[in-house]
Structures are given as structure tokens and as C-alpha cells.
Amino acid sequence: MAKKQPQGPSGLMVIDKPAGMSSHDAVSQMRRIAGTRRVGHAGTLDPAATGVLILGINKATKLLTYLVGQDKTYDATIRLGIETLTEDAEGEHTAAHPDAVEALTGMDAEQMRARILEAVAQLSGDILQVPSAVSAIKINGVRSYARVRSGEQVELVARPVTISEFTVHSVTAGFAEYVIEDPENEGEHMATSVPVIDCDVTVSCSSGTYIRALARDLGKILGTGGHLTALRRTRVGAVVLEDAADLAQLKQRREESEAPLEDLPLLPLEEAARRIFGARELSAAEASDISYGRRISPSGDGSVVKRSVHASADESGAVQHASVEGIVAGFAPDGTLVALLENKKQRGKVQAAPVLVFEANRSFN
Keywords for this entry (predicted)? Predict the structure, then answer.
């Protein structure tokens, strides 16, 4: 039986996820808006975070595994002076360090900034990072965050990540409430005002990086403790915030039309592929051969790249992703995306073989 073809257009739907919404909720809403079950996401974004969330619709869901492993950019606010259980503003307060903060704020502004930048430099470039204990990484089959929330002490192994940018835009000293359990009234909490320093930063990093762990580690280096108070993702690979649509507006249009939207502001499948991969313009004969699963002459210089699927867990969750290295997108003369291709060696001969076919069993002659 022939596989049922997806209904409606295919492409990437880039949304500016609002705070308080899970990525799963965003997928569910988009299924109703687009009128198709074939919607997926390229890695989750924490409910408290905002910004770029990439959804694949219909045929474009096939591209999502390649997007998960792309490098990313975030705007964030790091609060120095208070530690939390989850290393972000959602977790309970676990420690405050007013003396260390006052030692910094006692410097003149330029000295304080210079000291913070010295610490930032230690967290830039190729580093080893211990993932956040409240990550989705599994330990003996159980998510790390589940172990932490059950009261278990979790220690994860450091792993290599790359911080290509860690820019400090502003450093602001002030006060914030430090909330702890009242020692005299069990079950009750009390708040006191403690000095803090808020740093507004931009971080560009490899997949697998935890921004909350950067906040934690910056606080460790400075002796102040630290946690993340705001996070906004502005880029995933070549997809940027300017590509994003407002999900609430799309939802409202869907309700008003009483039918799935046919004019979604999609990043078309072909344009998405050109952004993610190198492009190869195929002849009609080559496009037809690839469509039927046949191999053609090698792409580029004929080199063969060994690729693998990687497991990744960062602020985008724990998912698998495939490397884009060695992959090119093959386009028919009419601009149709036919398939993703990679050079493979068989019986001593290198040829370009289809990795993922979008237009199967079609003649372009």
C-alpha cells in the first residue's frame, strides 16, 4: 500500500515561544493551526524560556534531526549572589553570598566589570562543562531532573562544549529577596533582602551547552554563587528570531477562520534546506536517478565524511541529532528539493547516494 502523502504545505514554522508554554504545547497548537498531525520540533525549549522554537510541518519534519545539533545563540540574565536548586529562577533558593557580592560592589565600576570579565574568559572557548543536574540526561534509565526533585544528590560527568561568544552587555548591582524556610515555623518561608549583581549577556554555543550551568559556574568562579533569571533563544543555526511568527496571532487567526490556515508564514522546504546544507544543482537525469534511489557522480571534491548520530541534551532537552557535515541538498532544475546526498564509497568507487529522499519515484526528464 502506498504511503499516504501529507496534506498541506511543507516547511519550517519558526515561532517566538512565549514564557510559560512547553514545546509540546506549541506542537499541539500548531497541529490544529496547520490541520496536520505531522508536526515536530527541533529540540525543546524550557517553559520559562522564550524565543526561537523551530517546528517542522509535513515533509520538513525530516529536517529536524539535522537542526537539533546546530549551534545556538541566547540572550540571558545571570544573577550573582544567590544559588538555587535548579540553577534558574524556578528553583528554591539554597544559598546566598552577600559578603562576596559586597566585595565586588565595593570596587569601582570598571574594576568590578573587569573581574567579572576575567571569570567569563575562563568559561569561553572550548571548555569542559558539568551539565545541569536538572537536565534531561538519563542516569540508569531515570532522568537526572527527576532524581534531583526526589531529593537525590546527582553528579554528572563533565563534557566538552564550545562557547564561541560570551558577551557581557551590562552589570547592575541591586538587592533581591532571598527566600528560605523559616527555622522557627516548619513549612513556612521567610524572605530577606540580599545584595545581588545582574549580568545581561549573550552566549553563542555548541549544542549540548547549558546556559544555566554557565550561570552556576560563573558564580562559582566569583565566589558569589549564581543562577539564571531569564533566557531567550535568538538563533538556531541559520534560523534567527527575525524569522519567527507570533503563535498567539496564528492561533487567533485559526479560531476566526474556523479552518486550518493555508497561508502559514513557513520557511519553505527548499529555502530551509539551502540554509542548513550545501546545495547541489542536479541535472534532470541526476534528479530522476536520485528520486529512484540510484547513485550519481560524487559531490564536491569527492571526499567521504564519516558521520554519526549524536545524543545531545542542553537547554533544548535530550534528543538525538545527525551531523550536517558531508551532506548536500540536491535540487532538480525546477528548484524542487529531491533528496539529501552524501558521498559513499562502494567497491572502491565514490558516488553520491541519497540519504533522505523527498521526491520518490519521480521523473524529472
Answer: Isomerase, tRNA processing
Q: List C-alpha distances in Å: 245 to 16, 18, 230.
A: 6, 11, 21
Residue among 16, 46, 75, 314 flagged as catalytic = 46
Q: How do residues 23-64 score in pLDDT, each as one tens digit?
A: 999 999 999 999 999 999 998 888 899 999 999 999 999 999
Q: Which residue has the cell 538519563?
A: 138
Facing residues of 345 across strands? 350
Q: Determine the Cα–Cα distance for residues 15 and 12; give it in Å rounded to an integer.
A: 10
Mean pLDDT, rounded, for 256-275 = 91
Q: Say whether 16 is catalytic.
A: no
pLDDT tens digits, one per residue of 169-222: 999 999 999 988 777 777 778 889 999 999 999 999 998 899 999 999 999 999
Q: Which domains does the chain have, with CATH numbers?
A: 8-70+240-271 (3.30.2350.10), 72-236 (3.30.2350.10), 277-364 (2.30.130.10)
Report the distance separating Cα 136 and Cα 318, nearest Å: 6
